Structure formats: structure tokens, C-alpha cells
Amino acid sequence: MIDAVGNVSSVLVVGGTSDLGQSVLARLIGPRLRRVVLAGRPSESMDRAANHVRNAGVPEVETIALDATDRTGHRPAIREAFADGDIDVVIMAVGWCPIFDPADPNVNVATRCVETNLTGMVSLGLLVSECLKGQGHGTTVWFTAAAAGVPAHSEAVFAATQAGIDAFAASLAEQHRDEGLRTIIVRVGPIPTKLGYRGPRSIPGADPAAVANAVAVAIRSKQQSVVYVPAQARSAAARLRRMPASLRRRLVGRAADRSKHPSTS
Amino acid sequence: MTRARTKVRRSRQAGDGGAPMAENDLRVEFAANTASEVSAAIASAPRRGIATRGQDGPIWDVNRNTGGATLALVGPLADIRRTAIDWERRIATVPGGVSVGDLIPHLLRHGWFLPSPPSRLDQTVGAAIAADERSQRPHAGAAFADHVEALELIDGCGERREITPQADPSAFWATVGGTGLTGVVTRAEIAIRPVTSAWLSADSTKCASLDDLIERMSDVRCGPDTQCFLAAKLDPTALGGQVGRGVITEAHPVPATELPTARQPDALAFDADPAVGVRPSGFARRIWHRGVSAAHKFAYHLAPSETQGGLLPACTLFRPRDPGPNECVITYEFAVPHDASRVIATALRLIAASGTPIVRARLRRADASGSALLTAVPSAGWIAELDLVPTASTGASLDLIDEAVAASGGAVRLASDRRMRPELVAIMYPGIDEWRDIREKLDPKRRLHSDLARRLGL
Lengths: 265, 458
Fold this sequence. Notes:
The structure holds two protein chains of two kinds.
Chain A: E1 10-14, H1 19-28, E2 35-40, H2 44-55, E3 60-65, H3 74-83, E4 89-92, H4 107-135, E5 139-145, H5 156-179, E6 182-188, H6 208-221, E7 226-229, H7 232-242, H8 245-260
Parallel strand pairs in A: 1-2, 1-4, 2-3, 4-5, 5-6, 6-7
Helix pairs in contact in A: 1-6, 3-4, 4-5
Chain B: E1 2-7, E2 26-32, H1 35-43, E3 50-53, E4 69-73, E5 84-86, E6 91-95, H2 100-109, E7 112-113, H3 125-130, E8 148-155, E9 160-163, H4 169-175, E10 183-191, E11 193-194, E12 199-207, H5 210-219, E13 229-234, E14 246-253, H6 282-302, E15 306-313, E16 330-337, H7 342-353, E17 358-366, E18 381-388, H8 394-407, E19 411-412, H9 423-428, H10 432-442, H11 451-456
Helix pairs in contact in B: 7-8
């Protein structure tokens, strides 16, 4: 349980190798963090991530095999994570953003993207929520795209999953409020991670470390439930959503052109 | 027994950077009117166990059981009218759910007082025993439990036990200070002493440094037979060589005949300080706490360097009531041995360095008393009680102070702890293994549980 001065003692990262999950974990690591569970597909990078946490001085580090697309394995994996004690913070950091060619959309890749980012995450989210209700406390951190809901030219499928997961997390948050659980939705702007960064250009101060910082502050504050990183993303996304489509197309199109030809910008 | 699944929506009032707020709003609550209902509630405890809590008073880790059930003693078990006073044996038989704030005026009305009154009025008699409460008396026998002659305990198996320090010392001294994990106290027989007034005659001395204060407090001599209360109010804003300066108050009960004539008719009246009415929120609260902290400085400067024979009402022996469960103040209370008073100065410096406002700072002298297994005061020493408003770096500072306290042979009090590391319990409480053995017998299924027990792995 997060104690009276805000110390977190156990963390579960669903999507253990994700850049955002890793950076939030790195920010939370300290003398008071006692237990870390990394859930994700078994791989070399997973072992590396676990070793990294172990070397940072966390006494109990576990890895759990979990594939977002294999829904039958979800329940045993999440149960296993909660079996050895309470979890204070759950970081939901599963995401996949395949590169689509709008001219030749690959339906298989598209459905797999939805299965990973939306179907899998909804299933995992419900299971985590069930376990948190059982222990009576806990904070869930969700990552979604700040621009979810803004029509995107090339990433229709990814945008759809992000809008879906955002709506799901926001509704779950309302449910959790009544149960005494906390939900933090982190709406992330264009940030360079290995998920693929194809935004116009990098914004100073917008990187995984900034996300980690914002999450740590939100966990402590006990007030914030929606966080935008970078903070400007809040107004930018709102403006893009309300803008006339013609104007938005021109703005976004120009930015995309600039990113394709960085030398001319 | 009534069992209710109640949804309690607490006001979402967050405090300065991390208000301690009860996280669990959906609770299974039991209310027991009789000892057999307590047994039944314990027997039907859910997987995460059951914790006993008082009717009022703050909900801290010790009486909160997130995800589990809580038990409140109500009706006859919390009715002050069920208190019986045996005038011959000088013993009061009190139901376990009666609050100290009800008991003290009731006893005073009949001309009695507790030899070692616990410091908080908003806790129940059972909680005061389970927390191993200490009075302000500076000599042996200063623990509240030292004057408890017998207990009725419903243990973790739901069995009713009559325990006394003579007949069943292991269960008795495991229950005293056992933070409620050995059973629920449903009745206590407490030794009482006759008084004729609820007034104290107090001498106060202002000390400009902690060393001076410690020296003067060490010099106070009063035998266990005389009633003497000794406490110091520290100025938490003082730093450098003046760290830990404060005003010592030494108080003795006054017989009614020695009171001014105007006070004599209602000499036994007891008016507890009402709960602090001001509860600012948000930014105003931040300023408020800084202001309260600074007010200690003025209070110190305005205090006369020495007074003698001033009259104080008995309510000054107790801490003011906590305004409510959402209040963001945490109490950090620790005991250090007699020769380790420098730890107190270190603590005040570290807390000041972390930018944490201290809204109340008290120091007491404690003598070894009783033989509670989980006692914070195994030998004679000092008890410091600091009320802080946590900021972002408070946790790290308190962790450092914990280390210093443990290294000096002292302990952080479990009953008010809300953040300690579990590793330190074995160092601070050498009796923990023996206590665990006794708890294993009293509550083998771990039905009695609390957030404190879960965090510290008790």
C-alpha cells in the first residue's frame, strides 16, 4: 500500500520491456521499492530489464510470461503477479504501432494491432481491476496518445486503438473511484520511443523521462487523474480536435512534409 | 451483530503533496454489541482479516484494514454507563469500546482519576492497551497498561479469555502493545486513584537548547507514589545551537482545598479541548501549517523564563483531538534511550532540512515499565512526538531518522507509525519473535489483521 508519505513498495509492469514502463519504473526505484513484477513476452530484453531492476537494488524481482494477444494466458499471469502480495502500482504499458502503407493496408497486421493494443489491454485491464478490488487499494497507470480522436492520415488503426483504450481507461477510472482505487491516464504527445516515432519534430522536454516524472508526481499528488506529457499536448490536442478539418489537414500535412524532408525545414 | 457493506464516500481532500487518504472506500463493517458478537465477527472475517477501530478518532494504519473488514464496538461495549467502580478495591471495570475521552470525565465526576492517563482522548480503552500508551509521568509505572489488572480478550479463534498479568502474563504482555493483533479487548479492569480536583499545579521552565532541556528534565525527581507529570513543548522552528529549545512543564495534582475559592464548586469538571474547528484545504492549508509551525516560535519567545504554581486544567495532559481522518498531519513518535538524546536533535534538523512543517513537537521522559513484548520503551529514555505535514522529501528524511533511532537502541512507536520499513522492526523490537510465538497461539489463522501488520510483516 502506498504509505502516508507516498512511498510505493510494489509495482507491476504489464508490458515489461516497453520504454515508458521502463522509465516510470526507473523513476520509482528507490530504497522503499521492495517488489517489482515484469509481465511480458519472454525475451532477452525482458531478462535484461529484470537484471537492470535487480542491480538497482530491488530485493524481489519477478518476471511473468504474458502475451497480450494470447488471451487464455491472461488470467493465470495476472493472478500470479498478485499471488505473492499486494501490488501498489500497476503500469499498463502494452502497445504496438506497426507501419502502414495507406496505399496497401495489410489487414492481418491491422487486426493484430487491434488485438494487442485494444482487445488484449481491455482483457488485462479488467483482470488487473479485479485483483485490485480484491486487495482494496492500488493505482493503475494507463498510457494513451494525446492525439487519440484526432483523425490521422496514415495511422488509422493505431489511432482507433488509442481512442478505444482511452475511453476504456476513463470509464474504468469512474468505476474504480467508487471502489477506492486510483487510475491515472497519461496522454502522451509525440515522444520518441521504440513504439515508432513519426511525429513532426521533437518537442524539448518530451521524452520517456518526462513521462516518468509526470507519473511519479501524479502518484504522489493523489489528485491528478489525467496527465498530459508534454503539458502542451493538452491544448494542442484540444485545438486539433476542434479545428476545421481543412485547416487541420493543412497543418498536419505540412508538419508531415517537414518531417519527411528535415533538411528543408 | 450487524453486518453492513457500506459505501463511504470520503471527501476528496488531498493535502500538501501527498495527503494520507484512506484508499479503500468500500468497506465491510461489523458492529458488535456483545462479546459473543465480537466472536462471531472474528469467525466470519474475510480472507484479508478484520481490524478493530474506535467509534471516533483517526483511522491510521493500525486500525485500518484495506480490502478486509473492520469491527467497531458499539452499544453496551462502548457505553460509559456500563462502567462499574469498585470503591473498596479502587478498580474501574470498563467496556473495551469506551473512549478515554468519556472515561476520564466519568471517573472525575465520582472523584477518581487514572494513575497514568493515556495521551489521546479519542481512542478507546482497548486501543490504549493495544497501543501501549504512555502517560506523561517520568517514572516507572507510567504506561497505561501498568494499571490494568485484568482483561477480557476475544482472541483470533473467537474464544473469550480472562487474562491478568499474574495468571497469564504471556498473553497479557503480548496484547499490551500488540496493536490489536492478538485479540479484541472487550473489558478491562483498571486501577484508579482518588482525586479531589481536576486541576494541576504547574511549574514551567524555558530552556534555550536541547542539552539544557534534557539536563533539567533528567533532574526532576518524583517517586512512583507521587503524581507528577513532566513534558516539554519544543519549538520546532529553532535550528543551529538552539535546536530542541522549549518549555518544560512539571505538574502535580492539586487538592480541591488548595484551589482558589471560585474554582472549588466545580473542581472536578473536565472540559476537553474541542476538536480544532479550522480545517483549511488546498493552498490555504499549506500556509496554515506553516503558520502553526511559526506560532510555536512566538509561543516560545512569549513564554516566561520560569513560572511556579500556575493552575492547569487536567485536559492539558492529553493531546488535542485530531480534526478528522482526512487531515494530512502524520504523527512520528519515537523513543530513544537516556544517553541518546542527540538523536532528537538530529531528527529535528533532518525534518527541518526536508522543508517539512512540524505543527506540534513534544518530549517526554519515560522510564522502563511493564514488560510488554512490543514496547517502544524497553529501557529508560525519551519519547519524542512530532506531528508533521509531509512534503515530497519527508519520507526520505524520516527513513534516515529511523536508522538513527534504531542504531541508538530506540524504536519508532508502532501504534502511530504510517510509513516505517519492515526490516527495522526486528532491530527496534527485539521481543518480536517471542511475540509472534504467542500471537500464533492466540490467532493461528491470522484473522486479526491491519494495514500496519501487512506493511511491516508483523
